[in-house]
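Appendix C reproduces, verbatim, an entry submitted by the partner laboratory led by Prof. M.T., so that reviewers can inspect both the input and the predicted structure.
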Amino acid sequence: MITAIFASLVSSFLFFAFYLLERGRYKERRRIVREHLAEVLPPSPYHAEERKPTFKEKLLAKMFHYADDFSGIGYRVNFFSETHDVENWLQQAGFPYKLTVERFQGLKIFMLLFGFVVGAFFFVLRFPLSQAGIILFPLAGYFSVILWMKAKAKKRQAELSYALPDFLDTMSVTLKAGVSLDQAMREIIRYFEGPLKEEFTRFLQEIDLGMPREMAYRNLLKRTDSVPFQTVIKSLIQGERLGVPVSTTFKVQAEEMRKMRKEKVKEQAAKASPKITLITTFVVMPSAMLLIGGLMILNMFSGDTNLFDLFK
């Protein structure tokens, strides 16, 4: 009996050692192949570097996992979050954290329940205004998801508009050198980051998969609401239909976008002046008046010639 147990333990140990040895050899061969491919093949614009998820991404992934259970309820409770609106927000935000419409609908219900738990916790501990917190915290959790996604979409569209003039200038120079539109786009887009690279990379992937060019352009228009970006895509559609060269158009549009950006900065600076005046009027001036008045009162009652000396 002891001999059989000993033999089984030795066999298990040998099997496990053999497994670890083969696994090490496999990883080494895979590393060698990867290094060889990296040396031989040119860099791909579609390649995404592998990286370990951060703590924030792990936490969000756990939240999304629990949120999936509430997707059905989220579809029914769709106040200020209709399905087509959510789909537009996700497209414009670039589907952050690989969110889908189903997961988004579940996430808002998950945050509503989380807000209710927080409100109930404060109510049990008898915090001030905790009765209102039972209602306000769930509402804040529900609408925070919607506002967060809208802010993501708005920020991404602003980044798209900001990077567009430099992209158009580079495209214009490259097209004038005789390079085709697709080839120029493939070469240039590698040197950009952010939403602009993501959108045009997806466009090129759709073209490679056989999608008609005009349909790929239409998909670009659906995924964005940036007015400058839509103007560029519409000019590309028109150039595709009429056979008009777009290099000069790109140059003119880039200059116009820069002018619009300067005008927008001037407009924002002009709007800042009344806000500063408002802050000065309602914050700084009352504080200064209180400070001066307080010093005058202190001087009247505790100075060398105070008010009480008049009655002596």
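The mean pLDDT is 82. Additional entries are available on request from the coordinating office.
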